[in-house]
Amino acid sequence: MRPKIFTLRNLFLVVLALGIFGGLALWGYRGFPLPFAGVPSTAGKIAFAWEKDGQTDLYLASATGGEPTRLTNTSAQEDEVVFSQDGQHLAFTADRSLDSVRQISLTEAAPARKIITLTTTSATKELPLFSSDRDLFFLDSGKVARTTTDASDATAIFPTVQDKRDNALLGALFAEGGVARFAVANGGEIILAAVKRERGEVLAVYLKNDKTLALLGSAQKLQFQALSDGSFVVLFDSGSPLKEPITLPTPKNTEEGQAAAEQLTGLLSQLGEQTDAMEGQAFLVRFDSSFKPANAIPFPFAPTGFAIAPNNQTVGVFANEGDADKVGLFIGGLAAQEPPQRIFDKPVSAIAWSPDSSSLAFISVSDLLIIPSTGTATPLNLTHRKGRAHSLAWSPTIAKK
Length: 401
Fold this sequence. Notes:
Largest sheet: 7 strands, antiparallel
Oligomer: single chain
Helix content: 10-25%
Distance between the termini: 73 Å
């Protein structure tokens, strides 16, 4: 009597085997983590890229000092590191070979964890930004795109090819260039973008749900940060905000779209002239949740960049080039009418706030340092001129008391 091949017992064994092999494959894809080997708390830790010993890897430094811990060890040039909102993961850009373009990668914020490449297309990726523990936005060849930490999808958000086909105004706005920098709010439903133009950049805000587009100002260079209260802050370098946002309604038909696009082209030309006239003037402007400028701080020089503290009240401004009295790290109140005061007098190229707003991590020349926001203490050097530090992020995790 021939044995039966198709039995319930054999079917069960096949399903069990598939489950085991599938689980092993998933475990390997995640880097073979040991059971219960989670990510240790990153409270009080700063992630940064450190170029030394012939390669650039990610490290984790303690704000209290000590030798930084190496997180990655690859031949890739890693940069633009950011923490997820729970402090468990790091996203960053990296080129995996000399002839490859930069892609978005992800790893857990602990040593020797698996590195997952989230994007694989031929276009260069930059400026990763978490909007939640799972959702990650980035810049993809002049477009704002979105992916997730499990790399389940990657899609263009603004502007999409279809959006530009459906709305002639978007075609006119992006006729001379793409998005240079961006910020998101409300989980990506609000996108703030610096759009490249022949004469500087235009500040645009896009409401993704109802596809509303508005212009807020222009400058030679725009930088910005979305705040937790729904407002956002913009640094206008050789430029200024508009007194009121200019809303650009979606045209109802092709004829109306062509006429509106011509009007927008004229408006953009006027903004370019305004940018030229504002050469050498810089302002830090806070916009309220209705996109109207609520407060402006003038600067006698053009800062390299800025960062708003998590308390939404204090601003750190930095400069790495210029006259001796205009470089360094500056701290001030966001509601103040006067420029921030300098607390460090050497060139600074990047900064990051502690989650309690009491301290700043910053990079000066090639070192990573920590200083209280009061500026009353000598900065603590975390790297001691061993190589070159760049690109930093302070974990948003707050230590439990």
